[in-house]
């Protein structure tokens, strides 16, 4: 993301009103997260209450811990409060959780590494200086966003410090009340314990804590003292989700609420020309039929009535601005490897042209299709517009941009939009876009004074989804005397990050950095290397999808490296280990080799493939084992080694890795979006089918802690899955698969 382009536009933030209480935390942290200017918890404090910063709020009635990121299924609503509770000596059940509202206080420090123009393994002074400058820029802009596997990197230090400051300030308040030395006090299970064993509950100390300065130099405990973090624990949201008690955004109800559903132009970005709603007007439950910017909406007494009625409206749509048929999308990509479409030559080592003329040449072309995000919870939200402004309840990863988009849609100022983030049933990048936000604002504005609940049908969710980028790679290389001597990686793709930025109101002219993920961050000792991206124009808009650019480029690169290794007559695992030039990354490969007991070819229709990709700073190596059967390929087992610097939640870590592998394998095997007459053809799960339970392999996971920085794990396990599987299929059958989905070329059981 180009720093200079983001800075062209100032972010506008609204204030978050919260119930009164005493709040603790710290901006003066060892992680060098710079001080935020305003504390969003200062508004509407109740009696005997005070706030010092954004993460911990204590009133005489309750303790509330703020989760500053959106929970999209990855566990934010559990691990973030637990990081604070660890330092405060709170136990699960002793606190409530609330999601943060829009505020620059919650700027995402985790983006500093990703936005700086250095590969993650580069810890040189120049790289660290660039990251520090990026961090300062993030502080100034106050960019609040969930994404890029940044949740733990962003909050690991700040939330632990916040809990430590709360703990020590409560001890100071208790010491003053009891007339004893702070050093003689300890904390346990939500209480300060006096020297004589008497306990004072944190709730009782709220008023006292409001009268003293916070202990800002408090330090978090050494991990060797952890009670909760680093230990197997049940996520705080598991029981409520299993029992159906947790309320997602789609479950919200409000007095006097009406329901809406929409039919929007399936030719993305184009308007409605005309419509005939005569059938819909007489259908049960229909209250209003509204025209909106690129479609129509039905307001009814329940969601089912609204969906049925809007489906009965006949619409004439303006045609698409991109090719109407899928074959033409591929043709555009095929002709995009030209200077006028050059994104950037991201990395160049040695003399690539001379290297390509040395030894045996190897060339290959790879393809990856558009993909849907397809979370279980379809797009939804509640909007309420009055003469004073708008309130919006929606699950989203970018609170400030929700304010901006909703406000712009109906002529308000962003500070007139109050945003309430919700528990979200999945995203995978879907909740970084605004398809539901804008139309909800338009509908609610036409129904002023009445809360409106918008729910997209599953079909509309697929049709309006901004998909993952479509891409083609044309790779060249050469091998000589058992070594890879040259690699020239080139890909052409639609631009996911630049598209998202433009729709967020901050267009960028910089090359799309996400297209470089998996392309330039290759850590093999290859004397002649080049990675170049080309940005295709005039195709369907695309956006971020779980692991973004690495989901395609990682497949292309690691598949091609495997082809080069084979051409050189080398073992796929041993060659990668020997070439890997980062010691901690080499350990990841060595670990997955040990886990899988890699000893070379298996034979008898069985094969193993390995792939190694670093995404969002997290190196991940995977081995996939398959068997060729009479009915097709069976995936037997997957081994995964990941280095995140510190595993703070082992159970959730394992689940995230396993889920990422299944996500990556399922989409590699089964999924693609294709266009016909300008519209997506796949509009439900039966046409965009993820991996089935009977297809899922055993997945063995190991987390390493050698990286000097704390890393995220929500997305990095996805990119290696597809190339490891493709490489395993080659090992078992001799067939190279260079295009996703794989089921176009081979059967799976």
Task: Write a structural description.
Helices cover 29% and strands 22% of the residues. With 749 residues, it is an alpha+beta fold. The strands form seven sheets. Strands 10-11-8-18-15-16-17 form a seven-stranded mixed sheet. It has a five-stranded mixed sheet with strand order 13-21-20-19-14, sandwiched between helices. Strands 1-2-3-4 form a four-stranded mixed sheet. The longest helix has 28 residues, at 151-178. The chain is globular, with a radius of gyration of 27 Å. The two termini are 41 Å apart.
Please work out how many helical segments DSSP would assign.
20
Biggest β-sheet: strands ordered side by side in the sheet: 10-11-8-18-15-16-17
Helix content: 25-40%
Q: Whole-number radius of gyration?
A: 27 Å
- State the distance separating the first and last CA atoms: 41 Å
The secondary-structure class comes to: alpha+beta
**Tally of extended strands?**
27
The profile of the biggest β sheet is: 7 strands, mixed
Low-confidence stretches: 1-37
Overall average pLDDT? 93
| Form type | globular
Q: Assess the beta-strand content as a share of residues.
A: 15-25%
